[in-house]
Structure formats: structure tokens, C-alpha cells
Specification:
The complex is a heterotrimer of chains A (292), B (258) and C (349). By secondary structure, chain A is mainly alpha-helical. Chain A contains eleven helices and four strands. Chain A has one domain (3-267): ABC transporter involved in vitamin B12 uptake, BtuC (Orthogonal Bundle). In chain A, 73% of the residues lie in helices and 4% in strands. In chain A, helix 2 packs antiparallel against helix 3 (63-86). The longest helix of chain A has 32 residues, at 3-34. Chain A is globular. Chain B is an alpha/beta fold and 258 residues long. In chain B, 42% of the residues lie in helices and 24% in strands. Chain B has helices spanning 42-50, 72-78, 95-103, 111-115, 119-139, 154-166, 184-201, 212-218, 236-240, 243-257, and strands at residues 2-13, 16-27, 31-35, 57-62, 65-66, 80-82, 172-176, 204-208, 221-226, 229-234. Chain B has a six-stranded mixed beta sheet with strand order 6-7-8-3-9-10, with helices on both faces. In chain B, strands 2-1-4-5 form a four-stranded antiparallel beta sheet, with helices on one face. In chain B, helix 3 crosses helix 5 (119-139), helix 3 (95-103) packs parallel to helix 6 (154-166) and helix 5 crosses helix 6 (154-166). Chain C is mostly helical. Chain C is globular, with a radius of gyration of 21 Å. In chain C, helix 5 (104-123) packs antiparallel against helix 11 and helix 8 (171-190) packs antiparallel against helix 11. Chain C has helices spanning 2-27, 30-55, 63-78, 81-87, 104-123, 131-151, 153-156, 171-190, 192-202, 204-209, 214-240, 250-263, 268-284, 305-320, 333-348; strands at residues 292-294, 297-299. The chains are: A mainly alpha (292), B alpha/beta (258), C mainly alpha (349). Chains in contact: A-C, B-C. Chains A and C meet through helix 4, helix 9 and helix 11 of A and helix 6, helix 12 and helix 14 of C. The complex binds adenosine-5'-triphosphate (ATP) and magnesium ion.
Chain lengths: 292, 258, 349
């Protein structure tokens, strides 16, 4: 094992970590504000990649324009899902909204199977992004670099949104104490809509990078990234953005390093990840950065 | 002989010391009160005694047995029963079943004999049903035994909670604000009721209450708590004239107004 | 007196029911028999999940995992050594599994017991993990099972699965177990233990304060639920003749959750009805996936349409019929009679 190879894997791990982290933030934001595990988040992620696909194939948009459109459409999708499936159940028992989320996930997957077809479709690979950089013998794909850069930009923007704007303040207030915040006159509906929009657009961004890395898209592609990201969110401590990113990194690293260094055990990857989840929950139920 | 003894018990929630080095003794058969301003740590003391929260330091003795590390179901089985400040009934279950649940821990029959109705289970189940019905009769809820607990009016829910607590065959009964939300008439009836069950079931009762009429009317001894500390202890007369107590109540009142 | 009458009525209807089963087994065509078998398995699955989710209030998504354990354990025990050798051509099956063969019933029971052990392992964390988190942990467990079974080539044959399983499952087996499941779980929840379970569902803190041992009772629900899920897995394996790890995925669990939701969380009667309904509905929905001719125009079958309709039903059920068919009501002879009497007296007026 050489240093260069290690660095290469490290870069891949970091990039994948960002991808998981961004999806995990979607879970964390929604859970923080409405206390709901948005089981459909992974499928929102899947829909985003199909939006890009059809933007390019059907409407022959340039790829970057298709990316931007997909992000907006996905935000819209997230908002509509909330309006249709979660809002009516806001005051119902938790189990109802949980089932609604499961049903929504189920519905999106089957909708995609019927409308888009169950077979894998190739995802468009822009020429310039598939270039490989050679930095002192360490070969890194440009996608990896761009993933990291865009993710950092998205994170900075998110940080600004949550900690510097009125909307972010409302979000944090709802997350802290839903009923009190509601009584204090915070516009609950608007804030929740906004939360879903932010979470879904982050999912769309990570879906694009995911699809650039693994360029086959299909209706069930969201299931595993979704669950891993959710695991990341819990491990990091749900409700905490920092925690979601940390969890994302952990899982991204494990995914890459296991395949790279212990290929025999690669098949057990998800078993490892879930074991880690169970252990974290047993010994620190609120996650690494969660508040008690 | 003290039946329950708290020895230097402290409980923290993060930076907040909810119960601060509290020592407390309950004599067998006495009816005592625990009072203090909002947030003084009264409910937390109940939670610590019953094992809902582990203590940070200190010791709790029940009939000379160390129960500091016991879980709530264990303290319940030993003979410490409680009611809750914000009523916690089994809402979807019938009134009778609410009481029968509290007898369950005494059942000495396996799951299998329960499922296949083996004689040893049937006998015990009949016995505990009879007992539960007796308790419902004692609190005057017999007629409502098949109603859903959540459908009962407020006053009846309070009574059902007490009946349920009695079904665990307690030696000590901890009542958390039993008169909350009652009108004066119901309150005076409740006072009689509490005295009656104390005598009928040979109980030691510790009672949290904001209604001073209740506390001064029925408690033989009163402990006053403020900011987690015991600031006074004594008979109702002594407490009423204690300057510390007056200051604590006035102080918190002033705080609430500001 | 009422009790006695209800008892004999139940016995009488059970006799009638099994006469019907006997008739169906010998006279109905294979297609209907198959659906009826599936219906029975759905009933077992739904009722056992309802014990955990509906009566104990612990949201579990682990049922597919328990089923997989039951299906594999029993299959590996009732398959003949030759059949196993034929299946395991990449890596041989480990000793002693490759040599033993035991009767179907004992194989089923072994599968159920192993699933029950798994139920204990999954139920134990219940003490620390609650609500949504528990759903995640149980789901994680069922994924671990799937991943393990995909990788343990020399025990499970990996993703190739087991093929050509002998078909022991018939209506007697499946409905026999379904009736036993309903009997067992109904008796359990009506007993003192069941009251403790429902108390945990309604208010955990109060239940514990009243002396209910949370750990014991939550794991009890998981163990019993998992046992029957394991049995159902074994029956299903021998019915469909082929099992592979990926058949036991989250979709399967979702289907069972749907059965419970449609039937009503906390209603066994409702679960039985919805289990049978869903079995027939899913079969009937196959129509939408086969090409059909309407007014001379051929509409090609759309694959996946069945599941799409299914998930739409799920959403409608969750959003508009939150309490399912029966809420948490149960069938009883007394209720039937009093309803009858009422009808009569109003007609008489
Ligand atoms: N689980 C908890 N986590 C954090 N803080 C808690 C918890 N339970 C109680 N506290 C805090 O401990 C303090 C004492 O609370 P406690 O409920 O014991 O007061 P109390 O005397 O019963 O008041 P009240 O008269 O309002 O019922 C309060 O400041 C409360 O906010
Ligand atoms: Mg209190």
C-alpha cells in the first residue's frame, strides 16, 4: 500500500462523506423541526437523478441547466410531499405519520418503476468532469474535487440560512420547542415548507454527485444511500447539522476503506454500518452530537 | 422507625440542581406534605424515590433496604406506589383493566398457563379481578368499570389513579398534587378520602400539594422545598409562621410577576 | 352462561371452517388454493406484527428478518441431503446441516424458535431505544440478516437462494397455523400479560410505576411476534418453493405493516380480514400487469403497476382511514348477538 493510493482513497472517502452528509442533513433538518423520520427522503434523492436524466434526454437541456432545474423540481417535490402526506397528520399519533412516510417512500419507488421503467438508465457524464487530475502521483477525478467544493459551498450557505436569517431562527425555534414556538406566532407552515425545500435541494445536489460517481440510475437507487445517510444522521445525533456531517464522513470512509482494504468483507458493509448504529444508540442514544 | 429515609440525595439535570442534598424521613403511618414553589424539585423527589431517575449522590432506604439503584417496577413491587401530577392513565384500556395492570406484578403464572388458561393462572386472575373490583368500589368507580379510562371526567381520573396505585398493595403512597383542578367541594371530599384510605390500607402517605387548605388541613408534618433544598420542616402551625417559608413563597411570587 | 355459549359457538364455527378447508383442499383449483395459502400466511404475519406494533406500541420493522430466519432454518432442516447437495454447488453446505433431514413440523418449530431468539436480541435494545429510533434499529436488524444471508455462502447458499423446496404447505398447514396464531395471541392479549402490554403502549412510565417490568414484557412481545413470523416464513418457503435473501426485504415488511394498518392497530379481527383481503387483492391486481384488450385496443401490461396501486391504497388508508377497518374493536359473539337483537327490536317497532 502506497501513500498515493491511500491519499486517493482518502479523497474518495471525503467526497462520498460529503454526499452522505448532505443527504443526512435533509433527514436531520426535517426531524429537528417536525420530529418525523422522512422515510421518503432517499426516494426524493432518486427522483432528483431522474429529473436530471429527463432534462437532458427529453428536453435536451445543457447538463448544467438540467442540474439546476432538477434541484428546483426536487425542492418542489419535497414541499408537495409534506403538504400531501405529512401536514394532514401533524397532530395525529406519531405512528400515523411514520406510516405515511413509509407509504410515501413506497409510492415514489413504485411510481418511478411504472413511469420511468424498472431498468437501470445511464446517467449523463459531462466530459470535463470525468477528467482526472494528477497531483504529485495522486490521481483524483475532477468529480471528486468538484463534489467537495460544491458541498462546502452548500454547507456554508446552509450555515448562513440557519444561523443568520429569520427563517433559520424560526426553524431553530420550532426544533427547540414546537408548541411554544407555535404560540409565539412563528409561521409554522411556512417554516416547515422551507425546511423541506432546503432538505430536498441538498438531497438533489448529493444525488447529482452520487450519479456522477455511480452513473446508473434506477427507481430503487435511493434506498441504500438514503438509509446510510439516515444512519449517519442518527450516529451524529439527529437534529445536529455538525453531527450529520460527521456521521456522513464516518460512513463514507467506512464504505470506501472497507472496499479498498478488506475487499473480502465488503459484502458485509451494510451490516457493519447498522451494527455501528445499534451500538451508538445503545450507548449514546442521542448520537455523538445530540442534545439530551 | 422511619419507613423511608432519604440521605443527602442530590439530582442534577445538566447544570440545574433539581434536588440538592435532601435528607428526609417518613414515619410509618404518617401523613405528611411536601410543598414548595413551582420548580422547587418536588416531583423530582418522587421520581428519584421511585427510581425513574438515578440519583447523582446520596442514598435512599426503604424499610432498612437500600433502594437507591432500583428501577421503578422494583420499587413498586417493594411497596412504593405513586400518582402523577399530570394524570397518566392507560387511556385506551377499561377502568377495571387499569387497576388490574397494577396487580399484574404479583401474578405467579407463566405466559403459557395464561394463554392456555391453566388452573393456577385462572385462580390468580380471578383473585386479582375480585381485588380490583373491591378497590373500584372503595373509590366509587365500580359502576364505570367497563368505560374507557380516557372517557372519565377529570375528578374520576384522579380517583382511578389512586385506586390503581392502591392495587400495587403499597406501604407508601406518593400523591403528586391530587387536588389540582378540583373545586372546593371536590377538594374537601378528597381530603376525607385520603384520610380514609390511609386508615383503611395502613398507608404512609407523602403528598405534594399547592392548595394550602389541603396541606394544612390533613398533613401531620410538612417539608418545604425551595430550589431543591429543604428549607423547613415541622407541623402545619410551625410552617405557617416560619419566616424562611414566607420569604421563599413571596420571593417566587415576585419572580413570577416580574 | 354467555361464556359457555360463546365457547361452543367458536368450536362449532371452527369445525365448520376446517370442513370447508378440507373441501377446498380437495375440490378448489390450484390457483385459488395458492391464494388461500398466502392469505393464511398474511394473517399469521399481520396478527404477529400487530402484537408488537398495535398492542405493545413498539414500532417494529423487523418482520422480514424474522421471516427470513424462519424460512431458511426450516428449509435447511426439511430439505433432503441430496437436494441440498444440488443447491450448494458453489460451496458445500457445512456439517451437520448437509446430512440431517427432519419432519416438516419440527423444522417449522425450529425456524420459529430461532426467529424467537432473534426477536429477543432485537427486543432487548427496546429499553434504550424508542419510537422512530426503534423502527430504525429493527429495520437495521432485518437488513443485517439480509446482508448476512447474502454472504454466508456455505450456510445459506448466498444470493443464489434455495431452489426446488418440497411443497409441504397446504391449506391444513397454513390455516391450522393461522388459527393457532390467532388463538394464541388473542388469549395472550386478553390475559394479565396482555393487559401489561397494552399498559406499556398507553403509558410506559405509568406502567413501570405500577410494577410492570418493561424489559420482560417488551421482549415478550418481540419473542412471540418473531416466533410466529418465523413460522410464517417457513410456511411461505415451502409454498413458493424458492427462497433467496433479497425476497425478505423492507418491501415485504411494508406489506405486513399495511395489513396491520388496514386492519386497525390493536384489532386482531381487523387484521385477519385485511390479511385475507390483501392476499386476494394482490392476486387480482395482477390483471393490471397483463396485457389486455379493451374495445379492440391492446393495452400492454405495465410492470410495477400492481405495486403502485398497492402503495396508493396504503397512502389512502393512512391519510383517510387512520383507524383501519375496525379501529381497535374486536369481533365477539356477544356483540354480534346484541347487534342482532337491536336490529330486531327496531324492526319490531
Ligand atoms: N427530566 C428533566 N430534565 C431536565 N430538567 C428537569 C427534568 N425534570 C425536571 N426538571 C427541572 O427540575 C426542576 C424541578 O422540577 P420539578 O418538576 O421537580 O418541580 P416541582 O417542584 O414538581 O414543580 P411544580 O410545582 O411546577 O410541579 C425544574 O426546574 C424542572 O425544569
Ligand atoms: Mg411537580
Amino acid at each position: 500500500m502506497t501513500w498515493t493510493l491511500l491519499l486517493q482513497h482518502l479523497a474518495n472517502g471525503v467526497a462520498l462523506g460529503f454526499v452522505f452528509g448532505l443527504v443526512a442533513i435533509g433527514y436531520t433538518l426535517v426531524y429537528g423541526v417536525v420530529k418525523l423520520v422522512n422515510f421518503a427522503h432517499g426516494d426524493i434523492f432518486m427522483m432528483a437523478s431522474f429529473f436530471v436524466y429527463y432534462g437532458i434526454v427529453l428536453f435536451s437541456f445543457p447538463w448544467w441547466f438540467s442540474f439546476v432545474c432538477a434541484i428546483f423540481l426536487t425542492a418542489l417535490l419535497g414541499i408537495s410531499i409534506e403538504k400531501v402526506a405529512y401536514k394532514p397528520l401533524r397532530d395525529a399519533p406519531r405512528i400515523s405519520s411514520l406510516c405515511s412516510a413509509i407509504g410515501m417512500s413506497f409510492l415514489l419507488e413504485n411510481f418511478a418503476t411504472v413511469v420511468f421503467g424498472g431498468r437501470q438508465k445511464p446517467f449523463y457524464q459531462p466530459q470535463i468532469l470525468s477528467k482526472t487530475l494528477d497531483i504529485g502521483g495522486v490521481r483524483i477525478q475532477l468529480v471528486t474535487v468538484v463534489t467537495i467544493l460544491v458541498s462546502v459551498a452548500a454547507l456554508l450557505f446552509l450555515n448562513y440560512l440557519v444561523y443568520r436569517t429569520r427563517m433559520g431562527l424560526a426553524m431553530r425555534a420550532l426544533a427547540h420547542d414546537f408548541d411554544t414556538a407555535r404560540l409565539m406566532g412563528i409561521n409554522v407552515d411556512r417554516t416547515i415548507t422551507f425546511t423541506f425545500a432546503v432538505g430536498s435541494s441538498l438531497a438533489a445536489i448529493s444525488a447529482i454527485f452520487w450519479a456522477l460517481r455511480y452513473p446508473q440510475i434506477w427507481p430503487f437507487m435511493g434506498v441504500f444511500p438514503g438509509w446510510r445517510a439516515f444512519t449517519a444522521a442518527i450516529i451524529g445525533g439527529i437534529g445536529s447539522i455538525k453531527g450529520a456531517m460527521t456521521g456522513g464522513f464516518l460512513i463514507g470512509m467506512i464504505s470506501i476503506m472497507l472496499v479498498a482494504f478488506l475487499p473480502d468483507l465488503a459484502g458485509y458493509r451494510d451490516a457493519f454500518i447498522f451494527m455501528m448504529l445499534v451500538l451508538v444508540l445503545l450507548f449514546k442514544p442521542t448520537g455523538l452530537f445530540g442534545e439530551a | 422507625m422511619a419507613i423511608l429515609k432519604l440521605d443527602g440525595v442530590t439530582k442534577r439535570f445538566g447544570g440545574l440542581i433539581a434536588v440538592n442534598n435532601v435528607s428526609l424521613e417518613l414515619e410509618e403511618g404518617e401523613l405528611s406534605g411536601l410543598i414548595g414553589p413551582n420548580g422547587a424539585g418536588k416531583t423530582t423527589i418522587f421520581n428519584v424515590i421511585t427510581g425513574v431517575y438515578p440519583v447523582d449522590s446520596g442514598k435512599i432506604l426503604f424499610m432498612n433496604q437500600d433502594i437507591t439503584r432500583k428501577r421503578p417496577h422494583e420499587t413498586a413491587a417493594l411497596g412504593i406506589a405513586r400518582t402523577f401530577q399530570n394524570i397518566k392513565l392507560f387511556g385506551k384500556m377499561s377502568v377495571l383493566d387499569n387497576v388490574r395492570v397494577a396487580c399484574h406484578y404479583r401474578l405467579r403464572a407463566s405466559v403459557f398457563s395464561a394463554v392456555f388458561s391453566l388452573p393456577n393462572y385462572v385462580k390468580q386472575d380471578e383473585e386479582l379481578t375480585r381485588e380490583s373490583l373491591r378497590l373500584l368500589e372503595a373509590v366509587g368507580l365500580y359502576k364505570l368499570k367497563n368505560d374507557r379510562a380516557s372517557s372519565l371526567p377529570y375528578g374520576h381520573q384522579r380517583k382511578l389513579e389512586i385506586a390503581r396505585a392502591l392495587a400495587t398493595k403499597p406501604k407508601i403512597l406518593l400523591l403528586d398534587e391530587p387536588a389540582a383542578g378540583m373545586n372546593p367541594e371536590e377538594t374537601s371530599e378528597l381530603m376525607k378520602f385520603i384520610r380514609r384510605i390511609r386508615d383503611e390500607f395502613n398507608l404512609t402517605i407523602l403528598l405534594i400539594e399547592h392548595d394550602m387548605k389541603v396541606v394544612m388541613g390533613i398533613c401531620e408534618r410538612i417539608t418545604v422545598l425551595d430550589h431543591g433544598c429543604v428549607i423547613a420542616r415541622g407541623s402545619p402551625g410551625e410552617i405557617q409562621s416560619n419566616p424562611e417559608v414566607i420569604k421563599a413563597y413571596l420571593g417566587s411570587g415576585a419572580y413570577a410577576r416580574s | 352462561m354467555y361464556k359457555k355459549r360463546s365457547f361452543w359457538l367458536t368450536v362449532f364455527s371452527l369445525v365448520l371452517f376446517f370442513l370447508f378447508i378440507q373441501y377446498a383442499q380437495t375440490h378448489f383449483d390450484a390457483y385459488i388454493i395458492r391464494i388461500m395459502n398466502v392469505a393464511a400466511i398474511y394473517v399469521i404475519l399481520g396478527v404477529s406484527l400487530n402484537l408488537i406494533n398495535g398492542f405493545t406500541g413498539q414500532f417494529s420493522l423487523g418482520h422480514a428478518g424474522f421471516m427470513a430466519i424462519g424460512a431458511y432454518t426450516s428449509a435447511l432442516l426439511y430439505m433432503s441431503p441430496e437436494l441440498k447437495a444440488m443447491n450448494f454447488f458453489i460451496k458445500p453446505l457445512i456439517w451437520p446441516l448437509n446430512e440431517i433431514q427432519i419432519p416438516f413440523l419440527s423444522a417449522l418449530l425450529a425456524g420459529g424458535l430461532l426467529a424467537a431468539c432473534a426477536g429477543f436480541l432485537v427486543g432487548a435494545p427496546c429499553m434504550r431505544v424508542k419510537g422512530d429510533y426503534l423502527a430504525i434499529v429493527t429495520y437495521g436488524f432485518s437488513e443485517i440478516i439480509r446482508v448476512l444471508f447474502n454472504n454466508l455462502q456455505s450456510i445459506t447458499n448466498g444470493p443464489l437462494g434455495l431452489k426446488g423446496l418440497p411443497t409441504y404447505t397446504n391449506l391444513w398447514w397454513s390455516w391450522g397455523w393461522a388459527v393457532f396464531t390467532v388463538f394464541f395471541i388473542k388469549r395472550l392479549i386478553d390475559s394479565s400479560y396482555g393487559r401489561a402490554l397494552k399498559a406499556i403502549r398507553d403509558n410506559e412510565e405509568a406502567a413501570e410505576a405500577m410494577g410492570v417490568n418493561l424489559f420482560y414484557h417488551k421482549t415478550l412481545a418481540f419473542v412471540v411476534g418473531a416466533f410466529f413470523a418465523g413460522i410464517a416464513g417457513g410456511l411461505l418457503g415451502s409454498l413458493v418453493m424458492t427462497i433467496d435473501p433479497n425476497a425478505f426485504n423492507i418491501m415485504l415488511t411494508f406489506q405486513i405493516v399495511l395489513i396491520v394498518l388496514l386492519g386497525g392497530l390493536g384489532s386482531i379481527t381487523g387484521t385477519v380480514i385485511s390479511g385475507v383481503m390483501i392476499a386476494f387483492l394482490m392476486e387480482w391486481l395482477r390483471i393490471v400487469e397483463t396485457p389486455m384488450k379493451i374495445f379492440g385496443i391492446t393495452i400492454p401490461g405495465i410492470s410495477g403497476m400492481r405495486m403502485l396501486i398497492f402503495s396508493l391504497i396504503l397512502m389512502v388508508a393512512v391519510l383517510f382511514f387512520r383507524h383501519g377497518i375496525l379501529g381497535d374493536r374486536e369481533f365477539s359473539w356477544e356483540a354480534l348477538f346484541s347487534a342482532f337483537k337491536k336490529r330486531h327490536s327496531t324492526e319490531g317497532e
